[in-house]
Design goal:
- Keywords: ATP-binding, Ligase, Nucleotide-binding.
- It catalyses: hydrogencarbonate + NH4(+) + 2 ATP = carbamoyl phosphate + 2 ADP + phosphate + 2 H(+).
- Pfam families: CPSase_L_D1, CPSase_L_D2, GATase.
- The chain is an alpha/beta fold.
- The protein is 39% helix and 14% strand.
- It is built from 10 helices and 10 strands.
- The model has no long low-confidence stretch (mean pLDDT 85).
């Protein structure tokens, strides 16, 4: 039981224990999070910013609403308002072809997405050229198109089916790249198709190594020094600047050829030739 003038600020959602208190009229507050949370020193670093701002305001006005300041600091305001309407039909970019020994996590996740959509009575349309997948099993998706995962064919399916939304994140790197191309070509906007799940802007920002590094730096987080290059010679020059060993990754690629570590100029040249091929 808290004494008069004090209220709970943070409450543990698991056991309802108190993890923070705040005064109702004075600019006093404190937090104590459970060690099992594994909280890092920067998880709620913004509380120190609130404290500094409160001290500055209190010294001039003597009226400070700490709770409102904390709520404003923690509140996330999306750049674009969320569209919470539920589409009646959703297009799913499938997992595509799989090689022997290759992991099938996107096939599995895509099949689970289809089941989840059907539980919500949403019609599912799947594009997947690989007939030997769980996704394309008879009776799973409402309609399956065995077509290559390239923008031209996906646009044809969109034109024919007119889905209200599309899921890009269950098609692996091929699905992501295809979605980015369709977005840049204005296909989704042309047919009024909403991108469900991860926003396309977030996909572009995280898949492009240079843009990702810039976005991380903007929010004050640390990121490994890197350079974006467009030729083998530029890669070699960048490595000399950064210092070996270096990690080479092709943009818009989760892994595979052109990705790996290089301890010297010869190894980097081999990786760069594959990545830029």
């Amino acid at each position: 039981i808290l004494p008069s003038g004090w209220q709970a600020l943070f409450t543990n959602a698991n056991d309802q224990s108190n993890e923070g208190i705040i005064h109702t009229s004075l600019p006093y507050y404190s937090v104590q999070f459970h060690p099992e949370h594994n909280a890092g020193p920067q998880d709620l670093e913004c509380l120190f910013d609130v404290f500094i701002d409160a001290v500055k305001k209190f010294s001039t006005s003597n009226v400070v609403d700490i709770r409102e300041m904390i709520n404003s600091k923690l509140l996330y305001v999306p750049k674009v308002p969320y569209d919470l309407s539920i589409p009646k039909k959703v297009l799913i970019i499938g997992s595509g072809g799989l090689s022997i020994g290759q992991a099938g996590e996107f096939d599995y996740s895509g099949s689970q997405a289809i089941k989840a959509l059907q539980e919500e009575n949403i019609q599912t349309v799947l594009i997947n050229p690989n007939i030997a997948t769980v996704q394309t099993s008879k009776g799973l998706a409402d309609k399956v198109y065995f077509l290559p995962l390239i923008p031209e064919y996906v646009e044809q399916v969109i034109r024919a089916e007119r889905p209200g939304g599309v899921l890009l994140t269950f098609g692996g790197q091929t699905g992501l790249n295809c979605g980015v191309e369709l977005q840049r070509a204005g296909i989704f906007e042309k047919y009024g198709v909403r991108i469900l799940g991860t926003p396309i802007e977030a996909i572009i920002d995280t898949e492009d190594r240079r843009i990702f590094s810039e976005r991380i730096s903007v929010i004050g987080e640390k990121v490994a020094p890197s350079c974006a290059v467009y030729s083998v010679q530029e890669a070699i020059d960048a490595a000399e600047k950064l210092g070996y060993p270096v990690m080479a990754r092709a943009a818009f690629s989760l892994g595979g050829l052109g990705s790996g570590f290089a301890d010297n100029k010869e190894e980097l040249k081999t990786l760069a030739l594959q990545a830029l091929a």
